[in-house]
Amino acid sequence: MAEFITLTAADGHHFQAWVDGREDAKHGLVVIQEIFGVNSHIRHVCANFAAQGYRVVAPALFDRTVRGTELGYTADDVARGRDLRGHVTDDAAMADVAAAAAYLGDRRKGIVGYCWGGTIAWWGATRSKAFQAAVGWYGGGIAGTRTEHPNAPVQLHFGELDTGIPLTDVELIHKAQPGVEIFIYPGAQHGFGCNDRGSYSAPDAAQAQERTLAFFAKHLA
What we know:
Elements: E1 3-8, E2 14-20, E3 27-32, H1 40-51, E4 54-59, H2 75-85, H3 90-103, E5 109-114, H4 116-126, E6 133-137, E7 154-159, H5 167-176, E8 181-185, H6 202-219
Parallel strand pairs: 3-4, 3-5, 5-6, 6-7, 7-8
Antiparallel strand pairs: 1-2, 2-4
């Protein structure tokens, strides 16, 4: 049954996390939100992975500042999300990720994130050893931390026309991390994987999801 549960980070912070999928699933995934909270879209993402046989947990990272945050995708929502994100330190976010990973136990596990979560998924590979694979969709902060060493295989997805992540940044990532699998989607914008956004591209989202699932199937086996 899909539901919110309460987890506790190493620093004592209690936060909500959305869980989905069979409790006896062989493999697990930590799903990391955009700057809009664990909203209906992220819960839908979790349901899709659960349907593929994963035990899934999505930590509510904004519980660090405003509990229960669920935003939409208007300009006001974007501004609000950016403000909330600015009040969550990188270390605090990673503490919540670690607690989510611990919840999944000893099973082999991956981490996948979108937007802000795409960057955190990258850090899940570089700043943690809890994951056997990491996938980031349009993570804007990856270029700035591109020299960090990944402890697990990584796959990244970017839109060609993402105004927040220019292709020059993607090239910098590629040069710094030649072993990382990178896909660029021609004509796609930021957030192309979210069907609640105007930038949604169904064909690109489907292809990126297919690649994501194949990557996890390979590295979590």
